[in-house]
Amino acid sequence: MKTRNQTGSDEMRPEYDFDYSTAVRGKYHRRLLKEGANVVVLEPDVAKAFRSSAAVNEALRFLLRMSEATQRLTSRSSGRAPSARR
User: Fold this and answer.
1) How many domains does the structure of the chain reveal?
2) Which domain holds residue 48?
3) d(Cα 56, Cα 49) in Å, to the nearest integer?
């Protein structure tokens, strides 16, 4: 049976030691926007209205359904005034 190294439970391995003073917030933000990532940042006032991403998705799907239904109603008309019937 192998014996384990007796290191303190509070010590991390050296490869997990990270100097957060050199970290850059949002380092890849511009690249993600340029590449068309599926991440969307909501404005604070909009984010307050939704509790989760599922709530946002549900609202957007509802809006899409309503938009499609409205588009079908208006796309059938020719845009001309109806002619008088005989």
Assistant:
1) 1
2) 28-75
3) 9
Nearest alpha-carbon partner for 37 in 28, 25, 46: 28
In a domain, 7, yes or no: no
CA dihedral 8, 9, 11, 13 (to 10 degrees): 110
Q: What is the mean pLDDT of the chain?
A: 79
3-state secondary structure of 70: helix
Which positions ≥6 away from 78 have C-beta within 8 Å? none
Residue 80 lies in a domain: no
| Closest alpha carbon to 60 in 34, 42, 72, 75 | 42
In a domain, 85, yes or no: no
Is 9 within the bounds of a domain? Answer: no
pTM exceeding the 0.70 threshold for the entire prediction: no
Query: Looking up tokens 């599922």, which residue turns up?
Result: 54
